[in-house]
Specification:
Low-confidence stretches: none
Mean pLDDT: 97
Distance between the termini: 26 Å
CATH topology: Alpha-Beta Plaits
Helix content: 40-55%
Largest sheet: 4 strands, antiparallel
CATH architecture: 2-Layer Sandwich
Shape: elongated
Number of strands: 4
Number of domains: 1
Number of helices: 4
Length: 97
């Protein structure tokens, strides 16, 4: 299953309701699971981004749908990257001409 790294920043709305964010995270975990994925890691971070999440999802379409659904709530803005495991990296490199 593909892995994605999502960086997020709280919006003004999200930070005003920060005390509700653990419950929002639980709801997001359920949403992801209902779409066949899993949040493998969730971190509050310091610096340019407020949150880092590592998510496994069945494919790009599913992760796009999930992130658009989450973003529509207005509590955070996200930036997401497809992440390749070491085994996937080795396979890609081995296939180079």
């Amino acid at each position: 299953m593909p892995t994605y790294v999502t960086l997020a920043n709280y919006t003004d709305q999200g930070i005003k309701g920060i005390k509700d964010s653990p419950a929002r995270l639980d709801a997001i975990k359920k949403l992801v699971a209902d779409h066949g994925g899993e949040i493998k890691g969730f971190y509050l971070t310091l610096g340019e981004y407020d949150v880092l999440a590592v998510i496994d999802a069945p494919n790009d379409d599913v992760i796009a749908k999930l992130l658009l659904t989450i973003g529509a709530d207005g509590n955070a803005r996200t930036t997401t990257f497809r992440a390749y495991s070491e085994d996937e990296f080795r396979s890609v490199v081995a296939s180079l001409p």
